[in-house]
Amino acid sequence: MRLRHIEVFHAIMQVGTISGAAQVLHISQPAVTKVLQHCELQLGMPLFERVRGKLYPKPEAHRLFAETEKLNRDLLGIRRLAASLKNNAVETIRLVSTPTIAISVLPFAMTAWRRDFPHTRCQLATHHTSEIVNTLRLGEADLALSLQDPRHPGIVAEPIAQGVMTVIAPAGTWRAADCGTPLTAHGLVGELIGHADNDPLGELVVASCEAQDIHPVFSTVVQTYQIARSLVEAGAGMAVVDPFTAASGSPDLLQRRPWAPAVPIQLYLLTASHAPLSHGARRLADAIGVAARQCLEKGL
Questions:
Q1: What is the pLDDT of residues 62-85, one digit of tens each?
Q2: What are the start-end ranges of the E strands in 117-184?
Q3: Other beta carbons within 10 Å of 252
Q4: Which range, 19-33, 85-99, 204-218, has the best average confidence (pLDDT)?
Q5: Cis preceding-peptide flag for 261 (omega within 30 of 0)
Q6: By three-state DSSP, how is residue 148 classified?
Q7: Between these two residues, 82 and 13, which has the higher pLDDT value?
Q8: Burial of residue 109 (number of CB atoms within 10 Å: 0-12, 13-18, 19+)
Q9: Cα–Cα distance between 196 and 228 in angstroms, integer?
């Protein structure tokens, strides 16, 4: 199928009529009909049933639609990019982050960076680290943030901030004088909030507990560190989380203590090894590093 065939085919699949596809594509109805006929002739089979002016996709059309959907999105993206270049549009930076950093660090980093780059467009998305690697490898993002080094040959992982795993508990759990001192697994009491079995940081916490001959029982298990923090702030129990999540919590609702023995946590800037950062993206990465370190200092 040619690109024009795919474009017309997708328009018809979405609106169901020749006239509707013509309006979507801003071309004449005869032009849509001609392209569709040529497409079906080239494929050697009809893709639609024609009933009273409407087109009903055959099973082959649905299968073809699923396979060509990404290609059609890429085509639209290329056209938008070409239009932007033609109109001398400003740079677009595509940033992907794990949810933890997107909530705790990025708002402050973006605010600071925006003062120097008021007209640069930034697209922000959140994914888990395994998805982030694929996004970078496919060229769908310029830079990414994660608390894990994926150790992938096509990904450069640059550490930009470091803290330690932190115990958080509802306000009033400890004396104020104790909050700066580390807490071992023996200090975990009451209701405990844990992380999913496949969570890397959660696995570190359990391993650290077992090394201290403690086998914690988690009453509640969550998928994200932000949910754990929200539960702690609501008085639901204790949790061990990354330092950025802990530092971004409300000081009126929770207390923090470093985990002992210390478990270092790095914030990594991830980029594709074959794609150097633009000036604006590099400055954004620098702002993120500053904001991350400030976040940790606030939590001390």
A1: 888 887 777 777 776 666 666 655
A2: 121-126, 143-146, 155-164, 166-170
A3: 7
A4: 204-218
A5: yes
A6: coil
A7: 13
A8: buried
A9: 11
CA 228, 233, 239, 245 torsion-angle sign: positive
Q: How far apart are CA 28 and CA 34, in angstroms?
A: 10
- The residue count for the chain: 300
Which residue carries 């109805």 as its tokens? Answer: 29
Contact, 285 vs 105, CB < 8 A? no
Structure tokens at 147: 């608390």
**Residue 187: per-residue pLDDT:** 94
Dihedrals φ, ψ of 115, to 5°?
Answer: -65, -35
Whether residue 89 is predicted with pLDDT greater than 70 in this model: the reply is no
Q: Which two tokens stand for residue 227?
A: 């949910």
Task: Give the distance from CA 69 to its chain's centroid.
Answer: 21
Question: Binning pLDDT at 50, 70 and 90, where does residue 274 land?
Answer: confident
- pTM of the shown model: 0.70
Token pair belonging to 44 = 């050697």
